[in-house]
Amino acid sequence: MRLENKVVLVTASTRGIGLACVKRFAKEGATVYMAARNVERAREIAGQLNKEGGNVKVVYNDATVKESYQTMIEEVIKGEGKIDILVNNFGTSNPKVDLDIKSTDYNEYIKTVDLNLSSVFLASQAAIPHMATNGGGSIINISSIGGICPDISQIAYGTSKAAINYLTKLIATQTARDNIRCNAVLPGMTATEAVSNNLTDDFKEFFLKHTPIKRMGTPEEIAGTVLYFASDDSAYTTGQIVDVSGGFGMPTPIYGDMIALKNRR
Questions:
Q1: CATH code of residue 115
Q2: I need a labelling partner for 7 at 20 to 30 A (CA). Which of 1, 36, 74, 162 fits?
Q3: 55-68: per-residue pLDDT in tens?
Q4: pLDDT mean across residues, the chain
Q5: How far apart are CA 4 and CA 1, in angstroms?
Q6: Domain presence at residue 2
Q7: Are 238 and 176 in contact (CB under 8 A)?
Q8: CB atoms within 10 A of CB 151
Q9: What spatial distance separates the first Cα and last Cα of the chain, rounded to whole Å?
Q10: CB-based contacts of 12, cutoff 8 Å, min separation 6
Q11: Could you give the residue numbers annotated as active site?
Q12: Is residue 207 part of a domain?
């Protein structure tokens, strides 16, 4: 029960990593708010988790409606009087139009960068004054290994995640005096619906070829690291950019080819 008496808000929380975080936090004793555009779906999930002993509530948030970041925080404060933990999980990219520098339309580029960065900036900006008044808090940004490992495609997504990594450090620096911590978790390829729907089998094969732990991560494994940053276990840790990627990008660039050659012998 590491989060007993804590109030947590998780954005984009009806599936994947966000939902895994909600479930883990509920088991750890927190009051968890699911921020979602599809409120009906969120309520169905919350109802089931509450039947299992959780304390899960729903608040509306739509990344394309920037005013909803302020209103979602206000609703949490109205209901609970505080917010202790904020998980900025929202992120978007369309691999069909988010290509390389030569092929990506500028408007599509800016749209993706704006949505991803705004989701962190606006939610954090709205939550920080309440955390400061309450004596502190923890902000965890879900970034991506793509924010530190440049790719041959998805230039907008990579740019936004790299910026989120730096924004994490800025927030950590500027709010530490208020006992607010801010850290980022960088998932590698994770077995989510978004990965299944948006990435080709060839890309998945190439990615895992360069992942020492030869499999995708699970949303639950990402949620475990998020829990660490949310809990007092990390009370003296802030401004950290931690990849949870099975070692992707760590070995020599020819790692995948070397392993393939070794396996042929």
A1: 3.40.50.720
A2: 162
A3: 999 999 999 999 99
A4: 95
A5: 5
A6: no
A7: yes
A8: 13
A9: 50
A10: 18, 35, 36, 63, 89, 90, 91
A11: 157
A12: no
- Domain holding 154, by residue range, is 7-198+218-250
**The total number of structural domains that make up the chain:** 1
Q: What is the pTM of this model?
A: 0.94
pLDDT in tens, 78-105: 999 999 999 999 999 999 999 999 999 9
For residue 197, pLDDT beyond 80: no
Token digits of residue 120? 């962190």
| Burial class for 127, CB neighbours closer than 10 Å (0-12, 13-18, 19+) | buried
Confidence of residue 199 (pLDDT cuts 50, 70, 90): confident
Nearest Cα neighbor of 14 from 51, 62, 53, 52 is: 62
In a domain, residue 70? The reply is yes
Supply 222's token pair: 């990402």
Residue 150 lies in a domain: yes
Encoded tokens for 129: 């004054």
